[in-house]
């Protein structure tokens, strides 16, 4: 995890749901709203919805009233010191266990924390040829999501990269905003699909995770001993493997014959 996820809510619906959790959100800027589109198949290098803390007020003073702002950032983190933004292709995820020891991430833990709203995420279970029913190894995609369809918050880090071809630093085009998803060991009910999963942050922790006044170590402590069982894995259509496919039909259950040799993560038994 995580190389694909679903985020099918519009910016307006996202703000409404986040506010309902008790986290105030500033009005979405027109540029961010225009860059975001609902998707059932979010892939790296796309613009994604990200909750960040608002900028501190000019000249100091009290923090702004809204605790969060919804921004459009590109998935695949580009450190501020990178020579080439192509490094973002390799930095879509960051292991939470080692994040403070990596030069690309450690400076971000203190003040560039974010939450990526999501419906759920995809992982692929390897099916060996001996039991695939086709004589060939294959992979079966699963969708990990709350059974009630509720909103998830994936913990992440973000950065700004200075675009060298834009001379004016005050031009919005002079800065590329990018993001990475933090990952951790998969919980027991998901390990039969993949051994890693995104860090799913409960809504009651979002405000402190975003708060720049909360030191990095204290913020990372929020990610320890998180509740499990909040998402349920279910097999979905192999078409999700092609990023050009993007519709609710991706979440339809496969036919029984397509599940030959696939292990049900919740029981440990074969589907068929």
Architecture per CATH nomenclature, i.e. the level-2 architecture: Alpha-Beta Complex
- Count of all domains: 1
Whole-number mean pLDDT? 93
Count of β-strands: 12
CATH superfamily: SOS response associated peptidase-like
Question: Can you tell me the overall shape?
Answer: globular
Strand content: 25-35%
Question: CATH top level?
Answer: Alpha Beta
Q: Using only CA atoms, what is the Rg?
A: 19 Å
What is the helix fraction of residues, given as a range?
under 10%
Q: What is the N-to-C order of secondary-structure elements (H for helix, E for strand)?
A: EHHEEEEEEEEEEHHE
By secondary-structure content and strand pairing, the structural class works out as: mainly beta
Poorly predicted runs are none
Query: In this structure, how is the largest beta sheet organized?
Result: 7 strands, mixed
Gap between N and C termini = 26 Å
CATH-derived topology: hypothetical protein yedk fold
Total count of helical runs of at least 4 residues: 4
Organism: Aquipuribacter nitratireducens
InterPro entries: SRAP, SRAP-like
Enzyme class: hydrolase
Protein name: Abasic site processing protein
């Amino acid at each position: 995890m995580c190389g694909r996820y679903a985020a099918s809510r519009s910016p307006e619906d996202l703000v409404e749901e986040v506010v309902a959790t008790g986290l105030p959100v500033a009005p979405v800027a027109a540029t961010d709203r225009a860059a975001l589109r609902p998707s059932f198949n979010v892939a790296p290098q796309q613009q994604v919805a990200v909750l960040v803390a608002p900028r501190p007020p000019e000249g100091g003073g009290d923090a702004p009233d809204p605790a969060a702002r919804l921004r459009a950032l590109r998935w695949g983190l580009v450190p501020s010191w990178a020579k080439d933004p192509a490094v973002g292709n390799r930095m879509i995820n960051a292991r939470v266990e080692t994040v403070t020891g990596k030069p690309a991430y450690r400076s971000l833990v203190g003040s560039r924390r974010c939450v990526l709203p999501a419906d759920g995420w995809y992982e692929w279970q390897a099916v060996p040829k001996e039991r695939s029913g086709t004589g060939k190894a294959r992979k079966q995609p699963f969708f990990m999501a709350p059974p009630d369809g509720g909103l998830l918050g994936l913990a992440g880090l973000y950065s700004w990269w200075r675009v060298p071809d834009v001379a004016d630093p005050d031009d919005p085009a002079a800065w590329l905003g990018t993001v990475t998803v933090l990952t951790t060991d998969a919980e027991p009910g998901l390990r039969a699909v993949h051994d890693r999963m995104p860090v799913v942050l409960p809504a009651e922790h979002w405000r402190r995770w975003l708060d720049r006044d909360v030191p990095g170590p204290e913020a990372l402590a929020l990610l320890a001993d998180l509740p499990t069982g909040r998402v349920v894995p279910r097999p979905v259509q192999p078409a999700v493997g092609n990023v050009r496919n993007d519709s609710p039909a991706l979440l339809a259950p496969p036919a029984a014959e397509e599940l030959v040799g696939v292990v049900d993560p919740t029981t440990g038994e074969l589907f068929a």
